[in-house]
Amino acid sequence: MLQKENIFKTRGTHKYTPKIFLIFCIYTTVSILFFFQTSFLNGKSYFGQGWDPYLYIWVFKWIPYAISHFENPLVSPWAWVPYGLNITQATTTPGLALIFWPLTSIFGPILSFNIATLLTPALSATAVFALCYEVTSKNIPSFIGGWIFGFSSYVIASLLGHAQVDFVAFLPLSLLMIVLYAKNKISFRTFTVLFTLTLIFQLLISLETFVTFTMMLGLFAVMHFLIFKNIQQIQKIVCHVFVSYLLTLIIMSPFIYYFFYDYSNMPHILQNAAPFRIDLLNLIIPTDITSLRYAKTHFTGNPSEQSGYIGIPLLLFTLFFSWRLWNKKEVRVLISILILALIFSFGERLNINGVATIPLPWLLIGKLPFIDNAIPARLMVYVFLCISLLLSIGLSQYVEKKYCIYLIGILSIVPLLPRNHMNAKNSWWSTACPRSKLFSTNEYKRYIRKNDIVLFFPFGDVSDAIYWQVITHAYFKTVNGYGNFIPSPLLKWTAIQMMVQNNPDSLQAGKQINLFAIHNNVREVIMPKPFWKQWKPILLQAGWSDHIVGRFSVFTRTKHQ
To answer: Residue 9: how many CB atoms within 10 A of its CB?
Structure first.
C-alpha cells in the first residue's frame, strides 16, 4: 500500500557512499558487457560512428596540452589556421577533456575517449541511482531507476557520436544537490559550491544541454508554484540556485567572452533541428539502437537522434504510477515536467511515422535565443530522467513484494537493451581508426616540417585532418578543422569555396590555391586518392611538386610559386 509519509525521506548521506561505488562498478560491468571491444584498448577503433568523435579526441589532446603549456585553451592555433578553432563555438567537450586528463596523459586521447564513452552510461546511471536513493531510501527501486536512465534510448543513441549531449551525469547530480539542500542535509555554502561546479562542468561539456536544463529548471519552479500554491516553499531554493548561476557566469566569463567574440561572423542557427524530433510511434517502436529493432518505419533524422523508444511495458508502468501517485504534489510536479519535456521533444509538429500533423509549442519556444539551436529530440533526456524518478518512487511507495519489483524492473529494462555487437562483423558501436602509410609511421616527417601549415582534401566536416594531427602529436598545424561551421573569413577565399563544393574552376583553381597558400603560409597540401583525378592536374600545373605515399599525394609548394 502507499505510505502516507512524505516521499522525501531524510537519511545521512555518508551511509551510502560505499554503496554508490559498488553500484557504479555494477553499472560499469554492464556497460562493458554491452559495448566493450578489445580494439578500444589498442587504438584500432574509436567508440561511435562517423567523423564527430574526431573532434572529441582532438579536444582530449588539445586541452591538456594548452593548459600545461600555459596557452589559451579556448582558441586553438592548431586548426582553422590562421584564424584558430574556437572551442566555445564548436560542439567540443572541454569539460570531459579535463575530467579524463589523467587517463589521457597515461594512455593517449583515443583510449581516454573510448574509456570516457564506455563509462558514460555507468556514470549517468550511478548519478540517477544516488538521486533516486536520496528520494526513496530503497536500493532495488533506485537501481532500476538508475538503469532506466543510464541505459535509456537517449543515452545509447547518443553513444553513436554525440559525446557533448551524451554525458548527462551532471543533470541528476545537480538535482541531487537541490534535494539534499531542500532536506537541510547540506549547508548553503556546500550547496552553492557543489551546484555551481555541476553547472560549470555541464556548460563545459554542452552549452545546448546547459541551456535546456536551465529552461526545464525554470519550468519546474513554475509548476511547483502552480501546484503547491505557495511561493515560500520554493523561493529560497530558487534564490540560491540563482546565486549559483550568477557565480557560474562570473567564473565562466572568459568562456562566455570567447563565445561571443566575433559572434557576428558565425551563423546563429548552427544546425537544422527540424528533422531531429521524436516521432510519436518511436515511443513504442524501437529503432536500430536496441536489440528489439524494427526497420520498417519512416522516422525522420538518424538513429543517433531517434531516441524516443520507451517501450510498451515501461510506458504502461509510467502511466500506472502516475495515476496511483497523483495525490502526491511532489510527484504531480514531476509528471508535469515529464509531459512538457515529451511535448517539446516532438518538435514543431507532431510526427506520426514520419508524417507531420498538428503544430506544437516548440513552434514558438524553438525561436527563443539559444533554444533555437537545441535539437528537440534531445529533450528526451528529461523524459527519461523523470520516468526513472517516477518508477523508483512508485516501486518504493506502492509495490511491497520484492518479486513484483524485480518483475517490473525486468519488464521495463529488457526492451531497452542495446543492440548486440557480438555477432556483427563490424560493430554498430565502433569505427575502425583510419590508417595510412604516411601517418601511421614517421613517413610524414620526410615531407612535412615541424609546425608547417598543411591543407587537407577534402575540406569541411568529412576530413580526417584533425585525426592525423592527433596521432602525429600535433606535429603540424592545419587549415582544416571541425565543428558546426567553417569560419567565415576562411570561406571568403575562392580556393576554399571550390574545395568545400569540390567543384574546381579549371582556369582559376590553381591560381586561387596558390594565392591562398602564399597568403596563409601553407607549405603542403595532402590529397587522398579519390581526389586525384579532379584536383591533381590543377596543383601540378600550378607548380606544386608531388610525392605519392600510399593512398595520399603530398604536394609541396616550390620556391618558384
So the answer is: 15
Cell of 535: 584536383
- Report the SS3 class of residue 536: helix
Query: Crossing angle of helices 170-182/109-136, nearest 10°?
Result: 30
Q: d(Cα 507, Cα 486) in Å, to the nearest integer?
A: 25
The predicted model scores a pTM of 0.92
Query: Is the CB of residue 452 less than 8 Å from the CB of residue 477?
Result: yes
Domain ranges of the chain: 13-416, 443-556
Q: Write out the DSSP string of 399-461.
A: ---HHHHHHHHHHHHGGGPBPP-TT-SS-TTEEEPP--TTTSSSGGGGT--TT-EEEESS-ST
State whether residue 478 is helix, strand or coil: strand
The CA-CA-CA angle for residues 197, 260, 497, to 5°, reads 125
C-alpha cell at 78: 592548431
C-alpha cell at 480: 582544416
Q: How far apart are CA 62 and CA 206, in angstroms?
A: 17
Residue 340's pLDDT is 97
Length of the chain: 561
Q: The cell 544546425 sits on which residue?
A: 271
Could you tell me the end-to-end alpha-carbon distance of the chain, in angstroms, rounded to an integer?
85
Residue 207's nearest CA partner among 61, 374, 59 is 374
pLDDT 10s digits, 155-201? 999 999 899 999 999 999 999 999 999 999 999 999 999 999 999 99
- Closest-CA residue to 173 (of 129, 232, 203): 129
Q: What is the DSSP string of 104-115?
A: HHHH-HHHHHHH
Q: Is-contact 278 215, C-beta < 8 A?
A: no
363-406 pLDDT, tens digit per residue, is 999 999 889 889 999 999 999 999 999 999 999 988 888 889 99
Rounded to the nearest 10 degrees, the angle between the axes of helix 139-150 and helix 109-136 is 140
